[in-house]
Amino acid sequence: MKTPEIADRTKAFAVRIFKLAEALPKNFTGKTIAAQIARSGSSIAANLRAAGCARSKAEFVAKLRIAYEEADETLFWLEMCEETKLLTPKKLAAIKAESDEIVRVIVSIIKSTVK
Known about the structure:
- 84% of the residues lie in helices and 0% in strands.
- The radius of gyration is 14 Å and the shape is elongated.
- It is an all-alpha fold.
- The chain has helices spanning 3-23, 28-51, 57-83, 89-113.
- 32% of the residues are buried.
- Helix 1 packs antiparallel against helix 4, helix 2 (28-51) runs antiparallel to helix 3 (57-83) and helix 3 packs antiparallel against helix 4.
- It has one domain (3-113): de novo design (two linked rop proteins), CATH 1.20.1440.
C-alpha cells in the first residue's frame, strides 16, 4: 500500500474513531477513554500527513514511527472499551481489525523504507 492510500485510510479511520468516542457513555470512564482514543486515533492520520511533507528519509521514518505508536495506543483504548464493558466485542470487532491492519501497514512501510 502506498503512503497516499494509507493516509486516506487513516483519515477515514479517524472519523470512525471520533464517532465511536461520541457514542461512549458520558460517565468518568467513558469520557476518559473518549478523550484518549480521539487523540490517538486522529493522530495517526495527522502524522502520516506530516510524513508526506518530510524533508528527509529520517524525518519520514520518524513521523511514521509516531503514527505507529499512536495506532498501537488506539488499539489499546479499543481494548479498554471492551474490557470495561463500554462496548461489546461484536461492536468493536471491525474497528479493532482496521486498527490492527493500520499498524501492520505502517510497520511494513517503515521496514521497506529503512532497508
